[in-house]
Each structure stands twice: as structure tokens, then as C-alpha cells.
């Protein structure tokens, strides 16, 4: 069979909600998009989802993104030209047991502290808003008035159709077999029938993402979980909101055609591509919902189904590049439907502009660096809602940026073993304190002075300062200029002064482009940096790490040379 | 549940970057919530980041319980001249 | 051979144009440490405190500490000591930057400038060469202009301390400016420099500071470095937000004096707080000599009527030009701060004087005609205009330039002067902070917050927390861990802002290997006490009595609003306890046994007859 060769700007693997919203947004911006789907549009988690569209009951770092996404929903049906049956009547999280009362109230406060309108309601207020519930088993609930639910099929097909309208091409029933890179840096994705070349590839393949990542040699902390759901025959309207509970993963809502759509119960890790439903889980869910909703005794169940969705250790998706071509967008932990629209928008923005949108900062994959793979259970849904310290994003890359100039970058020298270290200067961090001068002078002369220094701070303006010294260049201009053998080179390539040979002719001083050699009256010789024999005092003392001792490459050295030679005249001493 | 307001100052605002400088967060919290619980469970700010908790203008200890209408403000370690 | 100290004091007589060098008396140095202590001791040997402050006999003494210029963390400090033109008490103003270390590098522990020059001059000191040169080219220039011109006339690396037009015009609020933007600000020391027609001192030192035990010194330095850079206050909050982050905190507590101390909360405080400064006008931080804290803020207002650039505003300046005047416009406050720098006048006294004028205007005691324009609380444009007039001594500014005490007296409302001993109070309400109330009342240079900043204990809990409203045991706290301790630290050359991370022990651990002299914790307590008592004796001889250790009546009235409504300063009962703890009699005079304990002479016979 001959492979058909295609080209695109962006290949999207996965025709679920994320794949389709991203295809829509990208092609709307004029990109040439090819969507490759293993089965059919929305055949994965999207089509099997509970339909909840909520901002509430999320970990803190997801709340801003969820709020942005939910704000898009009221206008979606019009935008997509299809009624997605969006009902914005609120989301309840019901508390049935005394032990869950306070933790849920605390969690409501937590979410409020991120600016979300979510409240705690006592059972009377709950019943007033949702009279279809059985009050006997309910102690109260968290209530978010702007949450809701919609029909996931209609939503995903709406986005899919719009994407095609803007030119997205699609390959259905096509499984991706490999993702490779060409010599000139493009990606090539192959199915059994097609070979497609593109600049960028987005993996939005839900439960299939882990395997795809492994095809490019990467292991991501993704664990597929099976969610089991069912729907009843149509009933008269009894429930308008979306419901969850504190005690398990049970969810329920009434669809527009009247069926009660519910599920959860127990979530299980699933390593096979198996969307079965189990008798135990279904019985559990049926028993649970019967305790909470009136008049379900004689209702018939129409059908049941299972679905797979990948979860991550912290309950948040991974939205990040895996290499220069491949972007991963998965790990929505069973609540990605609501985030679909905004994620599609931001991914398109990221790919078009090349800049990471600030809103996507919390979802980078480096937050899992060094993550201890302890045993965690996705069925701790309530635990995820309570968002303990473990489930919050770690301090790495947290929301918000550092205070300007204040936080010196952390230097990890664990890989420097055996590498050749030199002094690296980062002028932006320099506060002009001149501790480097004092440290250098004490180290070599046992006293503090500021003439005849091997390192000197320059003040080109009132808000830019930098230390200037020998950068241990490869050209060794000073040695070349010396005719008295007063400068010699050691085994590490560091030039130092041979005092007894120095005649103070000072030919070396103008030869150095960065002012690395200076003359000391009292010694009657020149002096220069010799890295203090391997533990440079200036780097040790610099309080802001404007000077660090580390392996540096030619590019850094060139930059240092350029900036230092430019500001030689602004040194305190010449 | 009781209603309180919370202000975060200086570099504590990085925990809620959407908050404007003088904006107070209105929160409803369970009765008898202590300042420490407010910090660690609701705001999820490490206790060591706070040096000066002030309730209704008075510096207090982290084990103090909140009451209806309390105005809470947190400051990191700081000093001045 | 001297270690830590240079061993030489430079004396310049401007009347006769003579320069002499004197040896440092090491015994005196041991007793009074250096900096504030040594310079005050030298002053006591020079003059009778009864003299007129603006007379040629009053010397200006620039004093460094033994640690100044040694390169240990935050060792940039120097002081300016004299009899204060503003208050008549002893003056000791403190500054950082790079000027102090340069004095040591040039080979001097202190500079004594006496007499008066007939014409404007500047000093050019290069190591042991000293020239008195004409400053006719420089007279009228701002400190920034002066510095850049002088560096061309002397040496590009020379460090400059100078007066601005404020000092030239003898404003009693004038300070001395070094390194462009730093001020030895209070008490009018700049007026004395202006009276001496000394425009500037340019100094360049190619030498260094000898250390008795360099290895041990640097080890102790490294320890201190680690403690400071690990401290959340010294290294965290000062670097990130400077001191102005206090605005919202002190206001939240209802202790932020507003509208000339009429109340203690300012409704618009947040607009001029540290967060606003960082977000709107901050360019970057920079540091003084050898300092890891780098609390200086370089700021700029880029456009608009208040366009300008400089350093700050710090907490006190933000307050005095802001809330104290009812002003909430950050750019106007920043501009006023830059102007104070350009004219070389103290921001605290300037803001306080304008606030006093505002109250006089609003009560009708001052007319628009006299000022030239309406001067109401909250009017930022008027405030900035008033600063400018004051710096230039133009129009009504001529009266403002001499401070709020004289202003309030002149217009018949001495009760509108918010200070002690003619020096204006600063940004902590004494109604709320009872420790500060005592500090303002008893501080040797007038109502000063720095010399015993009890807010550290009354708010941050350093060394331990003592609620602000309580006065029991405050007397001892004010006396020893604050007033005496600060006197010691001010004498060493290290910056007070390190004190949140370290104690006397760490400082003595530097002093001993630097100087080779046995500085230790116990001696440091005595040294601080000795310096405080010496300053007290100066003031007693200058005519101050226990009656002057009192606060303005207004702060004994209840605070009208805010979370601390009803608080008031309750000093009266506690002054006597304070005197007793100090070893003074009921008139606030040191007793004989106290002097004996401190090995202090009874200069001028001012002490108690009691034992």
C-alpha cells in the first residue's frame, strides 16, 4: 500500500473536545490543520462524559482557567450554530455525612478566596432550589450558581463542524503509528495509510496519550481511569442543576430530553483499553442516587457505558511541549469538558505566537520533576476537591511571577562534575554593592581596599551596574602582549601573573578588552583574576548571584566580553 | 458559617495574583475557624510566610478563632525605618 | 599600627584655611567605639553646648565606625555630629552609600570641620593630600549636579558629600547629601555646613582598612552574611518592598498619623503604599557599600506634572509628604521626595512643616495671601509647590524652611507643632505605640524614631512581642534593647537594618578581629549606655530639662477613629520609672554613681547632686 503524503501546519491527534476546540481555533486563525482520530469524533471520554460544566470543586490553580472557560459557554450555541443544550442553573456538591460538613465548608471558603462565587447552603436552601431531592440524607451543600451542564455530543460536534468550516481536514478511523522528526526539524506523523508532515503536533488523545508519548520516548505521569455511567428513560423535569457529592464520585443531572444521566460510584485505574461497566459500580451508583433523588423507584435504566480518561498526580491537565514539535494536551482527570473551549483558544494562541500564555503557566510538565510516584487513588475525588498540599501545584512555577530582581535564580551544580568552571556575570542581578571587590581584596591582600583590584564594579547609569574582570578568554590577549614571560598559563587554561618577572611595563593592560588586568602601586606588578585557585571569593560572597562560578559556553563568554568592554570607562577605578 | 474579610499584603499577594492591592477577599468560613486554619486550609499559604496577622487592627496569634465580621490582614515578615 | 580604625583624625579649619592631622585616642575609641559615640565624644571636647548652633565654633564632625569600609556585610555607615541648628540639642545624622568607606580608605576615622569660610569652598581630600578649593562654580547646584561636576574636577572615582540649595540658604531642615541621593537628613546639619560655606567634600582613598585578624574577621563576616541573607526581614521584605510596605500595615493598625496627627488612619493609604510604589514607579534596587540587603529603590515617574527620577520614597517620606499632609497621589509624593533630594532637605521635617502650615491655613491662622496660594490638606499640587518654595526659600517658603516649631509659634498656635524638642515626630502614632511615645519624648535629638525603634517589639516581635498599648516594662525595653543598643550599633559603622537578623554578639564578633580590641557583648551594653548618657549631658548643658521630655498635647487626646479609636499616649506616669531605670534623678539628670559606673566625667557639672 502506498502511503499518501500530506502536509499541514498543525496535526492534532485526537478528535475529542480538546482536539476539536483547538482545531477550530487554529483554523480560524488561518492555520492549515489536520485532525487525526482513531475512531470517531467524541468517541473517547468526551462522548462518555457526565456533561458537567463547572468552575467549582477544582484545585486552586485550575480555578482561573475554569472561570475563563465557563464565561464562554452562554454564547457557545450561537457561536457554533448548534444548540448544545447548555443549562446554567448551578452546581451542587451535596454533603451527606457529618464528617464531611466542615471540610466542605472550608473548601467553599478556599474557592471563594480565589474569587469564585460559591456558597455554602443549609439543607432548607438546597431543597428550595432543588425540590426533587430527598432531604432526609442531605446535611447541606456547596452551591455555585454559575455552573451548569450541557450535551457533550452536541458540543463536540458543534466545534468539529466549525473547524471543518474553517478548513480543518480530518482523517477518521485512523490510528497514529509513529511520530518522528525530519532532518530539517519538522514532525512526521504516520498512520497505516498516510504520512503527514507538519511544524507542530498536538497530542489531545485522552486515554491514548500515554502510548503516543511513549512513541517519542517519554513517560508522563498519566494514569487512565475508568468512569462508569448510565442514563434512565425520560422523566418529567425534576432536577435542573448539576450534582455531585462529597462522599464519592457520584454525579447526576437531568438531560434536556428528561433522562437522569448519572454515574461514578467507584473509579478504577484501568490499564487496558477497556470501557466495560461493572455490576458492582452500577449497583453502587443506583443505590446512592436513590437515596438522594425522589421517586426513582420504578424508573428504567436505558443503557450503561464506561469511559477512560487519564488522570495526573495533582488533578490538573498537562499542557506543555514535549519537544520542539510536539505539544501534549491531556490529563483532565475526568473534568475536561468545561475546560475545552478555553484550552483550545490558548493552545492556538501559543502555537501562533510562540509565547506561552500566562494562563497556561500552572500546567507545565516540569511541575512533576522529581515527583515521588507514591500510590495515589483517583477515586479520592473528594480529596482532590479539598486540594490538600499534595494535590496543589508545588512551588515550582506557581501562579504569579517572582518579584522583579529579587529572586536570584537557583543554580544547580549537580551536573558540573568534571566540567570546566569559570565566572559568569549576570548584570541584571547586580545591585552595585561591591562586595565582590571587598571579598577579592581580602582573599588576596588580607585587607579591604579598592584600588588595584582584580574585579571592579562599573556604574554606567543609576540603574545599571555590573562587575568587570578577566573573563579568561581563549585568545589570552594579555599573554600575547607580555614580552617578559610574566604571565603564564596553568593546566586549566587560567592565566596568572608571575610576579618576579613583571617589570610593570603595563603593555598587557590595554591589550585586555575587559579590563581584566590592573596595576597595583604597592606591589609594583600587575594583578589579574586567577579564580582564587578554584573557589572564587567574589562568587561566594555575591548576595544576588550576579556572579556565579559555573561552566559557561562561548555564547555567554562573548556576551560578557561585549558588555564589559562597553562599560570599561564607568568603573569606579580605572 | 460566618462572614469575614481577608487582605493579603506585600509579597503575599503572589498567592492570589488576581487580587488588587487594597482588595479584601470576602469569605464565608465555618464557625470557630482559627487564623491558622484560614491560612493553611482555605488560603493554602504556608504559615511561615506570615509574620504579622492582624485582626480588626490588632496583632494576634494564629490560634485565635474568627468571629462574624472580623477583618483579617496578613503580612509577611517586614520592618521599616 | 591601627586595625579597624585608621588612627588619624583630620581637622580642617575653614576660617584660617588650616589642615591638621591628629592621632586617634585609642582609649577613647574603646570607650565610645566610633561613629556616633566617638564623634559625640569629640564634639564634647570641642565646644560648650551653650554656644549658638550656627556660630563658627560649632564643628561639623563626620565620623566613621571601625567597621566602616571593612567589607563585612552592610558596613557603609557614617555619621554627622554637631550641635543641631534646628533643635539646639546634640545632632547625629546617619547615612549610607559609599562616602563613609571612602573616608576610611583615605586614611581617616573622622573629619572635624571647624570655623567658617569667607567664600564658598569645597574640600578635596586624596589620601593625605587635602585642598580647600573655591566652590563658586558649584554654589546653587543640586547634589546630583554637584557630584557629577566634582567628579570631573577631582577624580571620576571620588565620593562626594554636599549640601543642596536648601543648606546653602541655611534652611534649618537641610541635611547633607552623599552619593547623589542619600541624606544625613535630620536636625539641620546641612544648615551648619551652609553657614560654613562648605559646599562639598570630595574624597578619594587609595588605601585600605587594616584588619587585626583577617581570617577570623572573614569567617565572622561569612557567618553574618549567611544570617542576613537567610533572614526574611533583612533580606526578604526590605529587598522586595523597601520600608514603604509598612504604610498599609501601620494604617491597618490605626497607628498611621494623618493630617498633622489629627487622626491615625488614612483612608487612601494604599495609594502610596509599598505595593503601589513597586508596581507603579520602581525601576530597580541598589545597594550601599558591601550590603547584601540592597533596600534602596531607584524610582521614576515617567510622565505627567510630577515627572522625576531619584531614590525612594521610603516609609517616612511617603508618610510625611503623603498622609501627614492628607495627600494620596503617589506621583506627587514621589516628586516631592525627589525635590527634597534636589534641595537637600529632610523629608520628614519638610512634610511635617507643610502639614502644620496646612492646619494653620485651614483654621484661618494663615491666609492665602501670606502663603501665595491655598494650602489645604489633601491638595497634592499645593504640597509639591510648598516643597519647592521651601527648598528655594522663596516667598512663604522662607518661613517654612525653618521647620514647624518656629512656624507654629510664629502664627500663634504652638499646639500645632507635632514634635519634641523642636524636632518633628515621625510615622508611628504615639497614641497607639506607647513605647514610641516614650522614645519620642526621651530621644536625645528630639522626637526621633530611629534611635529606639520600639515598633520592632511592639509589632514585629523583635526581640520579643510587647503589645503596643501596654506601658508596663516598656521603660526598660525602650532603654536597653532599643536606645542603648542603637547607640552602640550606630557607633560601629554597620547598618541598623541588619539588626533584624543579628545581635550585638555577631557585631562584636566582627569588631574584635577587625580591631584587635576586646569588644564583647557585655562591654557593648555599657558602651551604648555610656554614649546615651553623654548625649544626655550635652543636652542638659544646652539647657534642656525634664520639662522638655514631653509630647505635644494632641497625642494625649484620644485617637478619633479607626481600629484604635480612643487610644492616647499615656506617658506621664512612666517617665519617672524610665529615669530611675536610667540611673537618673527625678529631673532626668544622671546621678554620680551612674557616671562612675560608665566611667564618664561630669562634663560641665550638669549631673545630679544625688548619688
Secondary structure layout plus pairing:
The complex is a heterotrimer of chains A (574), B (81) and C (611).
Chain A: E1 4-13, H1 17-28, E2 33-36, H2 45-48, E3 52-53, H3 63-70, H4 76-80, E4 91-95, H5 101-112, E5 119-122, H6 123-129, E6 140-144, E7 148-149, H7 152-165, E8 169-171, E9 178-181, E10 187-190, E11 194-203, H8 209-215, E12 223-232, E13 242-245, E14 251-254, E15 260-263, E16 268-269, H9 279-292, E17 301-311, E18 318-321, E19 326-330, H10 340-353, H11 381-386, E20 422-425, H12 435-445, E21 448-449, E22 455-461, E23 464-469, H13 477-481, E24 487-489, E25 495-497, H14 508-511, E26 517-520, E27 525-528, H15 537-541, E28 547-550, H16 554-566
Helix pairs in contact in A: 1-7, 1-10, 3-10
Chain B: E1 2-8, E2 25-29, H1 35-43, E3 52-55, E4 58-59, E5 71-75
Parallel strand pairs in B: 1-5
Antiparallel strand pairs in B: 1-2, 3-4, 3-5
Chain C: E1 8-13, E2 18-23, H1 26-32, H2 35-46, E3 60-64, E4 78-83, E5 90-95, H3 99-106, E6 110-114, E7 121-126, E8 129-134, H4 143-153, E9 159-162, H5 165-168, E10 176-178, E11 182-184, H6 189-195, E12 198-204, E13 208-209, H7 214-229, H8 232-241, H9 246-252, H10 274-280, E14 282-286, E15 296-301, E16 308-311, H11 315-320, H12 330-343, H13 347-362, H14 368-371, H15 380-392, H16 397-400, H17 404-410, E17 419-420, E18 423-424, H18 434-442, H19 455-460, H20 474-492, H21 504-515, H22 521-541, H23 572-582, H24 592-598
Parallel strand pairs in C: 1-6, 7-12
Antiparallel strand pairs in C: 1-2, 3-4, 3-6, 4-5, 7-8, 9-10, 9-12, 10-11, 14-15, 15-16, 17-18
Helix pairs in contact in C: 1-2, 2-20, 2-22, 7-21, 12-15, 13-17, 18-20, 20-22
Can you walk through the features of this model?
The complex is a heterotrimer of chains A (574), B (81) and C (611). Chain A has 574 residues and is of the alpha+beta class. Chain A has 16 helices and 28 strands. Chain A is elongated and about 105 Å long. Chain B has one domain (2-75): Roll (Ubiquitin-like (UB roll)), CATH 3.10.20.30. Chain B is built from one helix and five strands. Chain B has one helix spanning 35-43, and strands at 2-8, 25-29, 52-55, 58-59, 71-75. Chain B starts with a strand and ends in a 6-residue tail after the last strand. In chain C, helix 1 packs across helix 2 (35-46), helix 2 runs parallel beside helix 22 and helix 18 (434-442) packs across helix 20 (474-492). In chain C, the strands form four sheets. Chain C has a six-stranded mixed beta sheet with strand order 2-1-6-3-4-5, sandwiched between helices. Chain C has a six-stranded mixed beta sheet with strand order 8-7-12-9-10-11, with helices on both faces. Chain C has a three-stranded antiparallel beta sheet with strand order 14-15-16. Chain C is built from 24 helices and 18 strands. By secondary structure, chain C is α+β, with helices and mostly antiparallel strands. Chains in contact: A-B, A-C, B-C. Chain A binds chain B through residues 60, 64, 102, 105-106, 108-110, 112-115, 119-120, 387, 389, 392, 398-403, and chain B through 1, 6, 11, 13-19, 25-30, 33, 37-38, 41-44.
Amino acid at each position: 500500500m502506498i502511503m499518501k503524503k500530506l502536509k499541514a501546519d498543525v496535526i492534532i491527534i485526537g478528535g475529542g473536545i480538546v482536539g476539536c476546540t483547538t482545531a477550530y481555533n487554529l483554523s480560524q486563525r488561518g492555520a492549515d490543520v489536520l485532525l487525526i482520530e482513531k475512531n470517531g469524533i467524541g468517541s473517547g471520554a468526551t462522548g462518555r462524559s457526565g456533561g458537567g460544566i463547572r468552575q467549582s470543586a477544582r484545585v486552586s490553580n485550575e480555578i482561573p482557567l475554569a472561570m475563563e472557560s465557563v464565561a464562554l459557554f452562554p454564547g457557545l450555541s450561537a457561536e457554533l450554530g448548534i444548540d448544545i443544550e447548555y443549562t446554567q442553573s448551578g452546581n451542587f456538591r451535596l454533603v451527606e455525612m457529618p464528617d464531611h460538613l466542615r471540610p466542605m465548608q472550608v473548601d467553599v471558603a478556599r474557592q471563594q478566596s480565589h474569587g469564585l462565587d460559591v456558597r455554602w447552603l443549609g439543607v432548607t436552601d438546597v431543597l428550595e432550589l432543588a425540590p426533587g431531592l430527598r432531604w432526609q440524607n442531605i446535611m447541606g451543600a456547596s452551591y455555585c450558581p454559575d455552573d451548569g451542564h450541557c450535551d457533550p455530543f452536541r458540543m463536540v460536534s458543534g466545534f468539529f463542524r466549525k473547524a471543518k468550516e474553517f478548513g480543518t481536514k480530518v482523517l477518521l478511523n485512523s490510528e497514529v503509528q509513529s511520530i518522528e522528526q525530519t532532518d530539517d526539524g519538522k514532525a512526521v506523523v504516520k498512520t497505516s495509510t498516510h504520512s503527514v508532515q507538519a511544524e507542530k503536533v498536538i497530542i489531545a488523545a485522552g486515554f491514548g496519550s500515554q502510548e503516543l508519548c511513549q512513541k517519542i520516548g517519554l513517560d508522563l505521569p498519566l494514569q487512565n481511569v475508568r468512569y462508569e455511567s448510565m442514563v434512565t428513560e425520560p422523566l418529567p423535569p425534576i432536577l435542573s442543576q448539576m450534582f455531585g457529592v462529597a462522599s464519592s464520585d457520584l454525579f447526576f443531572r437531568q438531560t434536556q430530553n428528561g433522562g437522569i444521566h448519572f454515574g461514578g460510584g467507584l473509579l478504577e485505574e484501568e490499564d487496558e483499553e477497556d470501557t466495560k461497566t461493572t455490576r458492582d459500580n452500577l449497583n453502587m451508583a443506583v443505590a446512592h442516587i436513590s437515596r438522594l433523588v425522589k421517586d426513582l423507584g420504578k424508573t428504567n435504566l436505558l443503557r450503561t457505558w464506561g469511559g477512560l480518561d487519564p488522570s495526573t498526580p495533582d488533578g490538573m491537565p498537562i499542557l506543555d511541549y514535549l519537544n520542539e514539535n510536539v505539544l501534549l494536551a491531556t490529563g483532565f482527570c475526568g473534568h475536561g469538558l468545561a475546560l475545552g473551549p478555553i484550552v483550545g483558544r490558548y493552545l492556538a494562541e501559543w502555537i501562533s505566537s510562540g509565547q506561552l500564555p500566562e494562563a497556561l503557566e500552572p500546567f507545565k510538565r516540569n511541575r512533576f520533576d522529581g515527583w515521588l510516584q507514591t500510590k495515589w487513588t483517583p477515586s479520592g475525588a473528594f480529596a482532590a476537591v479539598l486540594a490538600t498540599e499534595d494535590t496543589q501545584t508545588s512551588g515550582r512555577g506557581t501562579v504569579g511571577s517572582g518579584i522583579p530582581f529579587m529572586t536570584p535564580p537557583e543554580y544547580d551544580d549537580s551536573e558540573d562534575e568534571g566540567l570546566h568552571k569559570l565566572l559568569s556575570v549576570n548584570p541584571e542581578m547586580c545591585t552595585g554593592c561591591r562586595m565582590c571587590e571587598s571579598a577579592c581584596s581580602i582573599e588576596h591582600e588580607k585587607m579591604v581596599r579598592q584600588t588595584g583590584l582584580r574585579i571592579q564594579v562599573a556604574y554606567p547609569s543609576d540603574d545599571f551596574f555590573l562587575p568587570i574582570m578577566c573573563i579568561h578568554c581563549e585568545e589570552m590577549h594579555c599573554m600575547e602582549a607580555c614580552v617578559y614571560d610574566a604571565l603564564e598559563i596553568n593546566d586549566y587554561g587560567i592565566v596568572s601573573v608571575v610576579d618576579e618577572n613583571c617589570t610593570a611595563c603595563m603593555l598587557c593592560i590595554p591589550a585586555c578588552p575587559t579590563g581584566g588586568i590592573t596595576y597595583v602601586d604597592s606591589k609594583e606588578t600587575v594583578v589579574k583574576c586567577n579564580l582564587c585557585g578554584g573557589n572564587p571569593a567574589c562568587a561566594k560572597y555575591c548576595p544576588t548571584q550576579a556572579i556565579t562560578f559555573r561552566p559557561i559556553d562561548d555564547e555567554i563568554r562573548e556576551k560578557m566580553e561585549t558588555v564589559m568592554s562597553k562599560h570599561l570607562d564607568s568603573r569606579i577605578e580605572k | 458559617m460566618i462572614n469575614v474579610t481577608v487582605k493579603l499584603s506585600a509579597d503575599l499577594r503572589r498567592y492570589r495574583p488576581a487580587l488588587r492591592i487594597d482588595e479584601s477577599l470576602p469569605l464565608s468560613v465555618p464557625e470557630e475557624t482559627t487564623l491558622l486554619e484560614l491560612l493553611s486550609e482555605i488560603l493554602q499559604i504556608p504559615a511561615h510566610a506570615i509574620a504579622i496577622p492582624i485582626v480588626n487592627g490588632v496583632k494576634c496569634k494564629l490560634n485565635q478563632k474568627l468571629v462574624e465580621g472580623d477583618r483579617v490582614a496578613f503580612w509577611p515578615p517586614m520592618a521599616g525605618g | 599600627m591601627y586595625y579597624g580604625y585608621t588612627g588619624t583624625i583630620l581637622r580642617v579649619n575653614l576660617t584660617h584655611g588650616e589642615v591638621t592631622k591628629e592621632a586617634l585616642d585609642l582609649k577613647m575609641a574603646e570607650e565610645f567605639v566610633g561613629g556616633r559615640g566617638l564623634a559625640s565624644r569629640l564634639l564634647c571636647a570641642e565646644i560648650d553646648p551653650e554656644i549658638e548652633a550656627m556660630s563658627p565654633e560649632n564643628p561639623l564632625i563626620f565620623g566613621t565606625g571601625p567597621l566602616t569600609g571593612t567589607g563585612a556585610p552592610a558596613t557603609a555607615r557614617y555619621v554627622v555630629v554637631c550641635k543641631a541648628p534646628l533643635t539646639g540639642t546634640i545632632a547625629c545624622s546617619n547615612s549610607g552609600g559609599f562616602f563613609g568607606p571612602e573616608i576610611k580608605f583615605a586614611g581617616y576615622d573622622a573629619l572635624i570641620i571647624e570655623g567658617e569660610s569667607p567664600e564658598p569652598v569645597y574640600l578635596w581630600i586624596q589620601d593625605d593630600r587635602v585642598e580647600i578649593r573655591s566652590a563658586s562654580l558649584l554654589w546653587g547646584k543640586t547634589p546630583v549636579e554637584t557630584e557629577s561636576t566634582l567628579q570631573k574636577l577631582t577624580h571620576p572615582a571620588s565620593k562626594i558629600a554636599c549640601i543642596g540649595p536648601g543648606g546653602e540658604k541655611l534652611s534649618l531642615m537641610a541635611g547633607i547629601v552623599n552619593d547623589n541621593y542619600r541624606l544625613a537628613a535630620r536636625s539641620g546639619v546641612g544648615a551648619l555646613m551652609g553657614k560654613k560655606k562648605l559646599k562639598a567634600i570630595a574624597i578619594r582613598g587609595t588605601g585600605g582598612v587594616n584588619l587585626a585578624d583577617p581570617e577570623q574577621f572573614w569567617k565572622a563576616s561569612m557567618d553574618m552574611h549567611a544570617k542576613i541573607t537567610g533572614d526574611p526581614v533583612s533580606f526578604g521584605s526590605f529587598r522586595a518592598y523597601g520600608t514603604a510596605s509598612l504604610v498599609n500595615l501601620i494604617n491597618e493598625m490605626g497607628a498611621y498619623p494623618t493630617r498633622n496627627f489629627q487622626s491615625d488612619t488614612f483612608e487612601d493609604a494604599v495609594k502610596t503604599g509599598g505595593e503601589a510604589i513597586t508596581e507603579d514607579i520602581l525601576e530597580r534596587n541598589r545597594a550601599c557599600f558591601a550590603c547584601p540587603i540592597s533596600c534602596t529603590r531607584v524610582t521614576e515617574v515617567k510622565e505627567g506634572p510630577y515627572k522625576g527620577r531619584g531614590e525612594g520614597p521610603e516609609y517616612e517620606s511617603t508618610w510625611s509628604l503623603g498622609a501627614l499632609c492628607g495627600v494620596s497621589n503617589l506621583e506627587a509624593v514621589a516628586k516631592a521626595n525627589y525635590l527634597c533630594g534636589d534641595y537637600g532637605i529632610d523629608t520628614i521635617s519638610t512634610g511635617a512643616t507643610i502639614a502644620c502650615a496646612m492646619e494653620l491655613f485651614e483654621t484661618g491662622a494663615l491666609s492665602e495671601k501670606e502663603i501665595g496660594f491655598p494650602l489645604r490638606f489633601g491638595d497634592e499640587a499645593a504640597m509639591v509647590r510648598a516643597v519647592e518654595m521651601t527648598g528655594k526659600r522663596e516667598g512663604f517658603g522662607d518661613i517654612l524652611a525653618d521647620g514647624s516649631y518656629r512656624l507654629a509659634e510664629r502664627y500663634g498656635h504652638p499646639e500645632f507643632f507635632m514634635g519634641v524638642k523642636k524636632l518633628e515626630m515621625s510615622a508611628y502614632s504615639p497614641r497607639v505605640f506607647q513605647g514610641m511615645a516614650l522614645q519620642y519624648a526621651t530621644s536625645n535629638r528630639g522626637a526621633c524614631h530611629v534611635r529606639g525603634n520600639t515598633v520592632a517589639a511592639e509589632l514585629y516581635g523583635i526581640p520579643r512581642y510587647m503589645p503596643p498599648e501596654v506601658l508596663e516594662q516598656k521603660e526598660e525595653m525602650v532603654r536597653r534593647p532599643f536606645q542603648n543598643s542603637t547607640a552602640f550599633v550606630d557607633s560601629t559603622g554597620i547598618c541598623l537594618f541588619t539588626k533584624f537578623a543579628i545581635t550585638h554578639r555577631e557585631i562584636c564578633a566582627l569588631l574584635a578581629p577587625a580591631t584587635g580590641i576586646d569588644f564583647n557583648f557585655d562591654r557593648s551594653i555599657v558602651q551604648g549606655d555610656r554614649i546615651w548618657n553623654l548625649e544626655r549631658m550635652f543636652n542638659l548643658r544646652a539647657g534642656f530639662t525634664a520639662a522638655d521630655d514631653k509630647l505635644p498635647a494632641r497625642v494625649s487626646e484620644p485617637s478619633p477613629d479607626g481600629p484604635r479609636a480612643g487610644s492616647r499616649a499615656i506617658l506621664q506616669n512612666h517617665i519617672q520609672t524610665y529615669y530611675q531605670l536610667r540611673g537618673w534623678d527625678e529631673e532626668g539628670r544622671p546621678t554620680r554613681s551612674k557616671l562612675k559606673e560608665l566611667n564618664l566625667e561630669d562634663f560641665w557639672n550638669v549631673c545630679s547632686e544625688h548619688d
